[in-house]
Specification:
291 residues
């Protein structure tokens, strides 16, 4: 395979991957919070859409990305330039990250917060990041808000065994979301037709949030976080290229913790030999708050 031919094939696979992800998951592709998704600029073309978690579509997503990854892996052979190997590794790593989240851990069946983040981040993108585009931002925001009921219905259909910590955070986020819609100046300061446009979609979104809150409160759980050791090591290896074992990582963290505590104790004695470092911090925070 010729050098230029290989580079061209990598570029075509990358374009298919980024374009597909941008259309299917525009909010996540434009927000660094979702580290398993590529930063796909083409997602700007879909600012009127919220990501969909319809389970049939997710199955299609998994199969499609697997196909692209298989095509990419066929390019791995002798004679590749270092640049091509790097491109293949980075692109393949991004695909593996998506497959790990959606096929292996099935985050869309575990974490209710991802659904709430989607519409909150999706609206924030329009109000605070892309208003410079001079498009009908009010219309785009209204379009995304109108999709909140659909998104939360998908959540109720998809969520299965949810760790208790996820449930607690989700309940707090639901309350924060309701407060956001009811108090944010962007929505309150719209006038005329714009206010009417928002009123209808926001009322339906609030109803969906209330229903989702009831759903979460009924979904009691005593599950803890994911405990699969191999999965955690995969995350470190594939996402952070960190190839140490969990035992080695724990030892490094333990040593760092001990060294940090030792340094804090030394500094505390230099500041006030009769106070611990915790007492010094508490005293500082109290004084700063009451200045």
């Amino acid at each position: 395979m010729k050098y230029s031919d290989t580079k061209d094939r990598i570029a075509k696979i990358a374009a298919r991957y980024f374009n597909y992800m941008a259309k299917r998951f525009p909010v996540m592709c434009l927000n660094d919070e979702f580290s398993s998704f590529p930063r796909a600029e083409k997602a700007i073309e879909f600012l009127d859409s919220l990501d969909s978690f319809d389970k049939d579509k997710i199955r299609q997503d998994i199969n499609y990305i697997k196909g692209l990854k298989a095509s990419l892996e066929k390019l791995i052979a002798g004679g590749l330039s270092l640049e091509d190997r790097i491109d293949i590794a980075l692109l393949g790593g991004s695909m593996s990250s998506f497959l790990r989240e959606f096929e292996r851990t099935k985050i869309w069946q575990v974490d209710p917060n991802i659904y709430i983040k989607i519409f909150l981040f999706g609206i924030d993108q329009l109000i605070n990041r892309f208003s410079f585009l001079r498009r009908d931002i009010d219309g785009l925001v209204a379009a995304r808000i109108s999709q909140v009921p659909r998104l939360l219905e998908e959540a109720k259909r998809n969520l299965k065994k949810v760790p208790c910590a996820y449930l607690d955070v989700a309940l707090e986020m639901v309350d924060a979301s309701r407060h956001y819609f009811e108090t944010d100046g962007f929505f309150l300061n719209r006038g005329g037709a714009s206010r009417k446009r928002f009123r209808s979609s926001i009322e339906k979104a609030l109803e969906s949030l209330d229903d989702f809150r009831v759903y979460l409160m009924k979904k009691s759980s005593n599950l803890s976080f994911i405990k699969e050791r191999a999965l955690i090591e995969d995350v470190l290896r594939e996402s952070f290229y960190y190839k140490k074992s969990l035992d080695e990582i724990f030892d490094i963290a333990s040593r760092s913790h001990r060294d940090t505590l030792k340094a804090l104790k030394i500094i505390a004695k230099e500041i006030d030999k009769d106070m611990t470092w915790q007492e010094i911090l508490s005293d500082y925070a109290f004084k700063a708050k009451n200045v």
